[in-house]
Design brief:
This protein is α/β, with parallel strands linked by helices. It has helices spanning about 15-25, 65-80, 115-120, 120-125, 130-140, 150-160, 215-230, 245-255, 270-275, 290-300, 310-315, 330-340, 340-355, 360-375, and strands at about 1-5, 35-40, 55-60, 85-90, 105-110, 145, 165-170, 190, 195, 200-205, 235, 260-265, 280-285, 305, 320-325. Helix 7 packs parallel to helix 8.
């Protein structure tokens, strides 16, 4: 079997999709199956540590979404045929803007359907035309991996994909990297070039408005500070995306703006230490296809408060405190509870440590690679 793996929409390994692909590549066994990566030239060495023995074939000299769409529609079929692929795997199929008729079977992973968040707001999220095309792209795939039952349900309802072609394979968590760490007695977490004074409340997510819901989190933080008078800071770790200026305006207008800290894109390798130093991790997003950050926080021993929305209850189950993502008061209530009630705080930590055991990158990779081979 010869399989091509498309790296075009994996954000150079920096995003959740990039983590997903990296974890899969680490677990490709040295067998008779031949895997090959193809994508942007500037991604040539991104996955070298994870898959040093895999060949990388660079394609599409022009970067950008338009070039990506044109290449996949016009050039991909010829390319896949010339490489004699028996199957092609698309780790970020939900970000695939177009796909010509494939000469071989195709398997794609869908991490979310955020383009249709809030009453199918395709026009606002990804533009009117791509919003119409996306379901057709997904229907072209022979097999689809959904990272949660929530995503599977949305694939059926929004894209008209037959349920029999979808398999749910949850993401995993790297428990060797994400684990509890001893607290620094000096009350400072040093992660070059950052220095975080404790205590702090943490939110790890790209800064995107309105779907990631940072504006309501900033309001909830104000309520939390006024109720408790605590010295907690709010750390927002994530790169800027659509509407980031709206979030930063809300932070600048807050009476506690001096206690709100934006890190920008945060190094993945340093995330475990950042989580470990936090008192609470909050995930206020209106939409998540899986919620990998929830597992990362729980694995480091940090209690979680998250929105009762999309896939988050499926991922966290009984190990988190939930709030209405549209209610800042409700969000603040959970933050107050975790900061003031020691018993609930410890209970969330215990349940979180148990919950993460249900997720494994080894199991995820094993079934994913098996499905790719079956499709070939």
């Amino acid at each position: 079997m010869k399989a091509g793996i498309d790296t075009f929409a994996c954000d150079s390994g920096k995003s959740g999709v990039g983590i997903y692909l990296t974890q899969l590549l680490k677990r490709i066994p040295p067998s008779g199956a031949l895997f090959e990566l193809f994508g942007w030239e500037f991604d040539r060495y991104v996955y070298s540590d994870a898959a040093p023995d895999l060949e990388f074939v660079s394609r599409c000299s022009m970067s950008g979404k338009a070039a990506n769409a044109i290449w996949h529609h016009l050039k991909y079929p010829e390319f896949a045929g010339s490489r004699n692929y028996d199957v092609c795997f698309f780790p970020a199929a939900h970000l695939l803007p177009a796909l010509g008729r494939s000469p071989c079977p195709t398997v794609g992973t869908v991490h979310d359907m955020s383009a249709y968040w809030d009453c199918r707001r395709a026009k606002e999220k990804i533009g009117f035309v791509p919003g119409l095309i996306l379901p057709n792209v997904l229907r072209r795939l022979d097999r689809i991996i959904a990272v949660s039952n929530w995503v599977k349900q949305e694939l059926v309802e929004l894209s008209g994909v037959k349920e029999s072609r979808i398999e749910v394979i949850p993401n995993g968590i790297d428990l060797e990297a994400f684990k509890p760490r001893p607290r620094n007695e000096e009350g400072v977490v040093l992660i070059q070039p950052f220095s975080f004074r404790q205590p702090y409340i943490l939110c790890v997510s790209r800064i995107e408005y309105p779907v990631k819901n940072h504006v309501r989190l900033i309001e909830a933080f104000r309520i939390f500070k006024e109720r408790t008078g605590s010295p907690h800071r709010l750390v927002l770790a994530g790169g800027d995306s659509r509407g980031a200026d709206q979030v930063k305006k809300a932070a600048a207008a807050s009476p506690y703006r001096n206690d709100i800290f934006f890190t920008g894109h945060f190094p993945i390798s340093s995330l475990p230490e950042l989580y470990s130093g936090a008192d609470i991790a909050v995930f206020p997003s209106m939409y998540e296809g899986f919620g990998l950050g929830v597992l990362e926080a729980m694995a480091t021993g940090t209690p979680v408060a998250c929105a009762r929305a999309a896939s988050l209850p499926e991922t966290a189950e009984h190990a988190a405190l939930y709030f209405d993502p549209q209610d800042s008061e409700d969000m603040a209530d959970r933050m107050v509870t975790l900061s003031s009630n020691h018993d609930i705080y410890q209970e969330c930590r215990r349940h979180g440590a148990e919950r993460v055991k249900a997720f494994s990158w080894d199991r995820c990779a094993e079934r994913t690679l098996q499905l790719i081979q079956e499709s070939a």
